[in-house]
Amino acid sequence: MPASTPVSVLLVDDQPLVRAGFRMILESAPDVSVVGEASDGREAVRAARGLLPDVVLMDIRMAGMDGIEATREIVEWARPLGHGVRVLALTTFDLDEYVVGALRAGASGFLLKDTPPAELLSAVQVIAEGSSVVSPAVLNRLLNRFATLLPLPDAVPDPPEDTLTPREREVLRLVARGWSNGEIAAHLVLGETTVKSHVGSILTKLDLRDRVQAVVHAYETGLVLPGQADETGEGTSGKQHGEASGPSV
């Protein structure tokens, strides 16, 4: 989007004081505009359809329709229209099983509610640009912790053999382990541009939106199993967290 166009945000939380706090933070930035609020999931779906925000800041745990179902409905409705309504899920705990459900439902990332204001503003911009605020390494640890929520490898159909090339499967496996493009390039003796091209092809072939969904897909299809070690030993490096603010591919 043009640099002069503010990022439009829909706030969704069942606590008015929490919404007021987020609104104050977001409206302190000249390039962010809060276009609406909702107090539950069903209201959020209606507001998203009417306002077409760039980002929905979505509380996960709400009475009635929760944030997971609301995220699923918003993403499924917006995607065929080609409008980039993206959801940034909020949670009180970083190891909350609802976060896994939100990511499966189509959320582009998640934040803790006590995230510093500067990080919240940065995350909104990153999400609006089509990237993810959940680093692959963090998602890896989350999925490992809640492995019991994931289907067993033999409980899901294997993708067709020709869906991905052997090289793309190898790249996807490394992405799911939390490796950055630079680390993958060094390991496979490829250029970073080539790795980025492979990741883009993977997302297109599997009809995935970003790296977050690619990691979930790799776990759900058994390509990577919960508990597998990061063989680089760099799964929590600063490069990983830095990449989370960059392009999603």
TrEMBL record:
Residues 226-249 are annotated as: Disordered. The keyword GTP-binding does not apply. Keywords: DNA-binding, Phosphoprotein, Transcription, Transcription regulation. The lineage of its organism: Bacteria, Bacillati, Actinomycetota, Actinomycetes, Streptosporangiales. Residues 157-222 form the HTH luxR-type domain. It comes from the Bacteria. PANTHER family: TRANSCRIPTIONAL REGULATORY PROTEIN NARL-RELATED, TWO-COMPONENT RESPONSE REGULATOR. It comes from Nocardiopsis metallicus. One of its GO terms (molecular function) is DNA binding. Residues 8-128 form the Response regulatory domain. The modification 4-aspartylphosphate is found at D59. It holds the Pfam family GerE. GO terms for biological process: phosphorelay signal transduction system; regulation of DNA-templated transcription. This is DNA-binding NarL/FixJ family response regulator. InterPro entries: CheY-like_superfamily, NreC/VraR/RcsB-like_REC, Sig_transdc_resp-reg_C-effctor, Sig_transdc_resp-reg_receiver, Tscrpt_reg_LuxR_C, WalR-like. Gene3D superfamilies: 3.40.50.2300.
